[in-house]
Amino acid sequence: MNILYHAKNITLDDTHKERIARKLEKFSWFLGDNAQVQATLSSKGGLYRAEYTAWCGGLILRAEVQTGDMIASIDGAADKLERQIARHRHRSTAPPPSYHFAEPPDPIDEDETGLLVRTKRFPVNPMSVEEAIAQMELLGHTFFLFMDEGMHLAVVYKRKDGHYGLLEPEVG
């Protein structure tokens, strides 16, 4: 597992890196050797945020916790990631598909100004609608862009009634 460390408005020392690595290494049995994990620590207004995003075998897991204590945030985000792994294992008896990523998305520059305030890049891999819904739920998002099994881009989204919708673009 490869861990990439990022810090925003805070100094990330070796003690914090070691704690994060120790917390995340216990998931290597699930994430695998080729997994990439981006660990971001930030501080704003007396609050500390720990955010972990893991890319492993076509699966993206993300956990974020913000508290008044940096260690509590580091530990809390790891606990949240552990719950996501358990939830994923409960939903699927099959291992995640074996897609390999060259690198995780570029870190976000939150100092951008203007109309476009955030850009995210992420790998898009073929998957079924059911897998896309599970991925969206694991991320805690209300929509998810994916490539369907026919190699076309599609979006699943959570409706206000609790059901799901699917957007499939038509090329005209």
How many structural domains does the protein architecture include? 2
Total strands: 7
Q: Judging from the principal axes of the Cα atoms, what is the shape?
A: globular
Structural class: alpha+beta
**Widest sheet: strand ordering:** 1-2-3-4
Name of the CATH architecture of the largest domain: 2-Layer Sandwich
CATH class term of the largest domain: Alpha Beta
- Report Rg: 17 Å
Output the helix-strand order: EHHEEEHHEEE
Strand content: 25-35%
Biggest β-sheet strands, sense, barrel: 4 strands, mixed
Overview of this structure, please?
The protein has 172 residues and is of the alpha+beta class. The chain has 2 domains: 2-91, Double Stranded RNA Binding Domain (2-Layer Sandwich); 129-167, SHC Adaptor Protein, CATH 3.30.505.50. Helix content is 28%, strand content 29%. It contains 4 helices and 7 strands; from the N terminus they run βααβββααβββ. The chain has helices at residues 14-25, 28-31, 70-91, 129-139, and strands at residues 2-8, 36-44, 47-56, 59-67, 143-147, 153-158, 164-167. Strands 1-2-3-4 form a 4-stranded mixed beta sheet. A hairpin with a 5-residue loop joins strand 5 (143-147) and strand 6 (153-158). Helix 1 (14-25) packs parallel to helix 3. The longest helix has 22 residues, at 70-91. It is globular, with a radius of gyration of 17 Å. 20% of the residues are buried.
